[in-house]
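hey so i finally got around to running the thing on that chain from the lab meeting. sorry it took forever, my laptop kept dying and i had to restart like 3 times. anyway pasting the input first so we r on the same page abt which one it is
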Amino acid sequence: MTKNESATDRSRPTALRWLGYAFGGGLPAANRTWVLHDTTCGTWYLRHLARALVQLAIPIVVVLVLLPGSAWIRVVTAGAATLLGLIFSMAFMVETTEHRLVKAGYPVGLGERTRQDQAIRAQRDASARRRERIAARAAAR
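ok and heres what got predicted. didnt touch it at all, straight out
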């Protein structure tokens, strides 16, 4: 986040705007900080997969409803298509989230740098907690 942006400035998009965002549309400047959070928080990859599932929902429903043949064939086809769609989506997860950030006005590479910084911070915090536990055990002896 930039100096002028904070977590308190983060406003969620409406459901309709989020749906457009899930399909690749941009969001207004008021949602800029939310886009950064959406693409860099601890669950960013789950959020990405949720957007991919929303994108896949329409073709999957079409397959289930309109594909001629037995129900099991339609279900297997829909399942296979969903799996392949998710694999494809996961292959381009980082690039897709970076593109969303660029559309929101952030510099290229910010998402990956932010996620790396968060991972380093989490490792440091975990190490500090381990050291505290070890010191507490040593003091108890």
